[in-house]
Amino acid sequence: AQSVAQPEDQVNVAEGNPLTVKCTYSVSGNPYLFWYVQYPNRGLQFLLKYITGDNLVKGSYGFEAEFNKSQTSFHLKKPSALVSDSALYFCADSVNAGKSTFGDGTTLTVKP
Amino acid sequence: DAGVIQSPRHEVTEMGQEVTLRCKPISGHDYLFWYRQTMMRGLELLIYFNNNVPIDDSGMPEDRFSAKMPNASFSTLKIQPSEPRDSAVYFCASSLGLSGANVLTFGAGSRLTVL
């Protein structure tokens, strides 16, 4: 079985502050975990992925995510948020690309 | 590469009409996916193709929906007849290979409104 959960529908942060968007997973075996971002009226864009190896994964636009096996989490982080980071963020896990399961999404709002 | 190209970007139609959505995947990608996004159900996989052959259509909601991929550079998703509950954003995505490590590249989506 595979699933991801994003416990927060909405995250609000002030510009310049660190941000965290949470994701937990429930996957049998070794998970392949992804973060995608969706800007208004656009398709999802790949940010980063964890396959194996270093638990800290760095991705596009200064984002990073930490794979934590003991807590079954894969939270997305950025040290200093920008207003332009405001978007809808999706966590996903994948047995294969055809069986990707997406979370419900978290709306990130960064206020000036 | 221009990415995954979808058309139309917006479609407004009346109940009972036929709707055809189009997708051009990234050149060289051998997998193509159709997703539907709604507020209520989130992102749902409808169907995917490998080398133009439909592999899994278990997500297609009902017989009113059909999808084809006549060649490696073109796919269509057709709804006939359309109903108001079909209103959603439909995304096409493509990937190179089907490994769980492969990244999906999405198009900008087609927003369908059925009145």
Task: Describe the overall structure.
Chain A has strands spanning 2-5, 10-14, 19-21, 24-27, 33-38, 44-50, 56-58, 64-68, 73-78, 87-94, 100-102, 106-111. Chain A is mostly beta strands and 112 residues long. In chain A, strands 2, 5, 6, 10, 11 and 12 form a six-stranded mixed beta sheet that branches. By secondary structure, chain B is mainly beta. Helix content of chain B is 0%, strand content 54%. In chain B, the strands form two sheets. In chain B, strands 2, 4, 5, 6, 9, 10 and 11 form a seven-stranded mixed beta sheet that branches. A four-stranded antiparallel beta sheet of chain B has the order 1-3-8-7, with no helix packed on it. Chain B starts with a strand and ends with a strand. Classes of the chains: A mainly beta (112), B mainly beta (115). Chain A binds chain B through residues 32, 34, 36, 41-46, 49, 51, 90, 94-100, 102-105, and chain B through 4, 31, 33, 42-43, 45, 48, 55-56, 91, 93, 95, 97-109, 111.
> Strand pairing plus helix content of chain A: what structural class?
mainly beta
Number of strands of chain B: 11
Question: Which range best describes the helical content of chain B: under 10%, 10-25%, 25-40%, 40-55%, 55-70% or over 70%?
Answer: under 10%
- What is the ordering of alpha helices and beta strands of chain B? EEEEEEEEEEE
User: Quick check: average pLDDT of chain B?
Assistant: 94
Strand content of chain A: over 45%
How many strands of chain A? 12
Assembly status: heterodimer
Rg of Cα set of chain A: 13 Å
What's the shape of chain A? Answer: globular
Q: What value does the average pLDDT of chain A take?
A: 92
Number of helices of chain B: 0
* Uncertain stretches of 5 or more adjacent residues of chain B: none
Span between termini of chain B: 36 Å
Query: Sheet bearing the most strands of chain A, described?
Result: 6 strands, mixed
Most extensive chain contact?
A: A-B, 23 and 26 residues
How many strands, which pairing sense, and closed or not: the largest β-sheet of chain B?
A: 7 strands, mixed
